[in-house]
Specification:
The chain is mostly beta strands and 125 residues long. It contains no helices and 10 strands. The strands form 2 sheets. The protein has an 8-stranded antiparallel β-sheet with strand order 3-4-5-8-7-6-9-10, with no helix packed on it. A two-stranded antiparallel sheet has the order 1-2.
């Protein structure tokens, strides 16, 4: 999977990735993103799970995690990813109402800063 790290205004980002299964290390935190189903389907909810672990292997529990989705025509969706029962794991759902290419951004905000991870999804019907 292509995962180029860029230094950007809001911190490092990963480009060209899909959410099926993405793992990257950004600013001392391992970020693992998974989607279920693996390929989003129009008019069905897709569950996104983000797991955050620090460099010592401990779960990151004090983060605010959000997911935004946009299409080129301006259609958008957003969801907060809420902490699950497992420490360092955050979950949320997006309902894609149109098929086609969606650009997603996973935003992780901590006291030490903010990281944005762009993801591309192709929604089928």
């Amino acid at each position: 999977m292509h995962a180029a790290l860029l230094g950007a205004l809001f911190g490092p980002v990963v480009t060209g990735a899909t959410a099926t299964s993405l793992t990257t290390d950004v600013e001392g935190v391992r970020v693992e993103v998974q989607s279920m189903p693996e390929r989003p389907v129009r008019d069905r909810k897709t569950v996104y799970t983000v797991r955050l672990v620090d460099s010592a292997g401990k779960p990151v529990t004090e983060a605010r995690v959000t997911l935004t989705a946009r299409m080129a025509d301006g259609m958008s969706a957003a969801a907060p990813l809420r902490p699950s029962s497992a420490p360092g794991v955050y979950r949320g759902e997006i309902l894609f109402t149109m098929q086609g290419r969606w650009d997603l951004t996973v935003r992780v905000v901590r006291q030490t800063g903010r990281v944005e991870i762009p993801i591309r999804e192709e929604v089928t019907r």
